[in-house]
Design a protein that fits this description.
The protein is built from five helices and seven strands. With 212 residues, the chain is α/β, with parallel strands linked by helices. The chain has a single domain, classed as Maf protein (Alpha-Beta Complex). Strands 2-1-3-4-5-6-7 form a seven-stranded mixed beta sheet. α4 packs across α5. The radius of gyration is 18 Å and the shape is globular. The relative contact order is 0.18.
Length: 212
């Protein structure tokens, strides 16, 4: 075990999504880790998201990265659940479009709006995120975050990624894409999940640095 005061332990993000990487790098600041992207560890293999839940998919990705690199790893699985579509796209949010996984964010948003066009508004929805922290020996912690809102018929805002320009938060009168990074990182589904994982993140980092 390294002595107290040694460099921060390394934690690799198991996601190739640049938007997620940027958010997670900000959200994980202050927990005692040196956070690395896949590019900084020579790349990670794509993991098939075959789980039957967000938690299962997050675990698959986190464990695969931890075992591949020998480092601790963090992964998330996130979905948009729209009530008028019976909870879709849900687990398939990243593959929800005319070209599946290859669809652009704009194509996914257009596909969603096309399906909702005939449905009465408001189009109530939520983002659900599960974050998994995994160690190379199979250690595992999970946490979940949920953000309630609704879908609007036109994209609004220049920030964020994915479905953010369509996801409206009534209490704020804005979409997620209209919030700056600091504001989004206070209330988003992913921010909630990371905060709930915070005690495990701090405890493991402290343990690896030889703390009490």
């Amino acid at each position: 075990m390294p002595p107290a005061g040694s460099p921060e332990p390394r934690l690799v993000l198991s996601t190739g999504n640049r938007g997620k990487q940027k958010e997670l790098l900000a959200l994980l600041a202050g927990y005692g880790w040196q956070v690395l992207t896949p590019d900084q560890v020579g790349g990670l293999p794509r993991v098939a998201e075959t789980g039957a839940s967000y938690a299962e998919n997050a675990v698959l990705k986190a464990l695969a990265a931890a075992r591949r690199t020998g480092l601790w790893a963090l992964a998330d699985d996130t979905g948009l659940e729209v009530d008028a579509l019976g909870g879709a796209p849900g687990l398939h949010s990243a593959r929800f479009g005319p070209r599946g996984q290859q669809s652009t964010d704009a194509e996914r948003r257009a596909h969603l709006l096309a399906l909702l066009e005939a449905q009465p508004r408001p189009w109530r929805a939520r983002f659900r995120c599960v974050v998994a922290l995994a160690g190379p020996q199979g250690e595992l912690w999970l946490a979940e975050g949920v953000l309630e809102g609704e879908i609007v018929p036109q994209a609004r805002g220049e920030h964020g990624f994915g479905y953010d320009p369509l996801f409206f938060i009534p209490d704020l009168g804005r979409t997620l894409a209209e919030l700056d990074t600091e504001a989004k990182n206070r209330l988003s589904h992913r921010a909630q999940a990371v905060r709930r994982l915070g005690p495990a993140l701090r405890a493991q980092a402290n343990l690896m640095q030889g703390g009490a």
